[in-house]
Amino acid sequence: MSLPFLQNYLGLSSGLQTRQASAGGSVGGWVELGRTTLGSANANITVSSLANKRYYMVLTNSLGTNAITTDAFYRMGYGSVDSAGSRYSKRESFDGSDSTTINATGIGHSRNDANQEFSVGYIANYASKEKLFLSHKIQQNTAGAGNAPKHRLENTGKWIETTNPLDTFNMNSGGADTWNTGSEVVVLGYDPADTHTTNFWTELASVTLTGTASTINSGTITAKKYLWIQAFIKQASTYTVEGHFNGDTGSNYAYRYSGNGGADGTGTSTSKIPGNYSAMAGGVFINMFVINNSANEKLVIAHTCEVPTTGAGTAPGRMEFVNKWANTASQITSFDYTKETGSGDLQSGSTLRVWGSN
């Protein structure tokens, strides 16, 4: 079992992957440092007593009680939550529209949805430097594939503490509402010196095509609350691809996306999870996270790097999208990418990998 491909992109040591390969995946990696799951409604979800790690990954799954217009906040702290004035600033893209906030009491993230939300964030934690934060979030909107995800958010922020490392992470509702029972914050840590054997992410599937095919499929995977999916689709001709959970090709998906930095578009009552923004012939790399609770719609946060043609003379395309699968009866137990339109098949060497954790 090896760690997700994206680690090098996040600034993690390439040597870690070498060590893991030689040790059978038993050394280092993302480890769970703390988790808080609400047993009753509360305006705060705080994870404290975090071990000092160079990098953190933060997974949040929040359930609102009312539709509100007040921003919620991410906050950090050393010993306690730092909510003092003028200690934070942020830049946020809200459905593709940028805005900034300075001298704030937290890193605000817009929230006005009484339904489910899901975010994945990262923190660079160096004691003598400001703590840098980035995250991506989906707001579910009203249930049903006829309703596209309400909002797509990309957020960067900083906490100006330069004396201590952080040991506390907090998500505050902004005072106008509370998070509902079952809302959760999970904090993972990684440090290059780690030698633990308790990786949070467990590999559930690793499939590489050895010949051409119209589909690459994970096969049956163990159902997990959190999923991390990556795929590389290798091409020899021009076509688009689409994804499906549990082989569902019915009109049970909805998405919101931005292609190459353009204005947001939406798709409702569709039969797919998008695989790319525009037709390509050089391949596509896809990275996505999924919250996979049985009784809730499955929410997806994803990014693509798309190659129209090979060679440095052509810039790649990109897409940021959020997606929901309107299944509230069961968990995801398989995933596939299938050729959608165009000519040719997925080529030998195309790869699909899935990791998961509860």
Protein architecture, described:
- The chain is mainly β and 358 residues long.
- It folds into two domains: 5-190, Sandwich (Jelly Rolls); 202-357, Jelly Rolls (Sandwich).
- Helices cover 3% and strands 46% of the residues.
- The chain has one helix and 24 strands.
- It has one helix at 14-22; strands at 31-37, 44-47, 55-63, 72-77, 88-94, 97-104, 107-109, 116-124, 131-139, 151-159, 168-172, 184-190, 202-208, 215-217, 226-233, 239-245, 253-259, 265-270, 273-274, 283-291, 298-307, 317-325, 335-342, 351-357.
- The protein has an eight-stranded antiparallel beta sheet with strand order 1-12-3-8-9-10-5-6, with no helix packed on it. The chain has an eight-stranded antiparallel beta sheet with strand order 13-24-15-20-21-22-17-18, with no helix packed on it. The chain has a four-stranded antiparallel beta sheet with strand order 2-11-4-7, with no helix packed on it.
- The radius of gyration is 20 Å and the shape is globular.
- Residues 1-25 have low confidence and may be disordered.
Short summary:
The chain is an all-beta fold.
Secondary-structure element string:
HEEEEEEEEEEEEEEEEEEEEEEEE
User: For this structure, what is the CATH class of the largest domain?
Assistant: Mainly Beta
Could you tell me the CATH topology label of the largest domain.
Jelly Rolls
Stretches with pLDDT under 50, minimum 5 residues: 1-25
| Count of discrete structural domains | 2
Mean pLDDT: 87
**Radius of gyration of CA atoms, rounded to a whole number:** 20 Å
